[in-house]
């Protein structure tokens, strides 16, 4: 994580921040209150509310720590401000066509905001690495688990 930047879009950063605030400001205090109540009920070794609450609190604290670290190391890049819109860079919305004429639209986003089913792929993924810096009409070869594919860039857009 420290050897490469943690690029993220403003929207992706906002979602990380919202999750952090929900966990830290709402869920964690409610859980601490439940644990406190359960601890007051006597024997903690057989108290399900207490045991489950402590386990859940550790999970929340671990997630809060991870979110905090990712936000601290994040480098927010607004794709709408990309000066060179003729090539594929971080945040680009790219329409690709493979050798079987199947069209696919992908958006290059940060690792913390990927959603392959929605076409949001990490800027460090094999496809993204293959097409970064490409212009419309360029053909790039990428090695995927299903084998090698040639992808042609047919459209490049940036939000905003």
What would you note in describing this structure?
This protein is an alpha/beta fold. The protein folds into two domains: 6-76, Helix Hairpins (Orthogonal Bundle), CATH 1.10.287.180; 79-157, Transcription elongation factor, GreA/GreB, C-terminal domain (Chitinase A, domain 3, Roll). It is built from three helices and seven strands. A five-stranded mixed β-sheet has the order 5-4-3-7-6. A two-stranded parallel ribbon has the order 1-2. A hairpin with a 4-residue loop joins β3 and β4 (103-109). The protein is elongated. It starts with 5 loop residues before the first strand and ends with a strand. The mean pLDDT is 92. Residues 86-158 form the Transcription elongation factor GreA/GreB C-terminal domain.
Identify the notable features of this structure and list them briefly.
160 residues, Helix Hairpins, Chitinase A, domain 3, 2 domains, two-stranded parallel ribbon, 3 helices, Tscrpt_elong_fac_GreA/B_N_sf, Tscrpt_elong_fac_GreA/B_fam
In short:
This protein has 160 residues and is of the alpha/beta class.
Q: Can you lay out the helices and strands and say which pair or pack?
A:
Elements: E1 6-8, H1 10-39, H2 48-72, E2 74-76, E3 93-98, E4 103-109, E5 120-122, H3 126-131, E6 139-144, E7 147-157
Parallel strand pairs: 1-2, 4-5
Antiparallel strand pairs: 3-4, 3-7, 6-7
Helix pairs in contact: 1-2
Helical coverage, percent range: 25-40%
Could you name the CATH topology of the largest domain?
A: Chitinase A, domain 3
Overall body shape: elongated
CATH homologous superfamily placement of the largest domain: Transcription elongation factor, GreA/GreB, C-terminal domain
- The proportion of strand residues reads 15-25%
* Counted beta strands: 7
Give me the CATH architecture of the largest domain, please: Roll
Strand order of the largest sheet: 5-4-3-7-6
- Work out the count of structural domains: 2
Q: Give the ordered list of helices and strands.
A: EHHEEEEHEE
Query: Mind summarizing the main beta sheet?
Result: 5 strands, mixed
By DSSP (H or I, 4+ residues per run), the number of helices equals: 3
Radius of gyration: 22 Å
Protein name: Transcription elongation factor GreB
Keywords: DNA-binding, Elongation factor, Protein biosynthesis, Transcription, Transcription regulation
Domain Transcription elongation factor GreA/GreB C-terminal: 86-158
Family: Belongs to the GreA/GreB family. GreB subfamily.
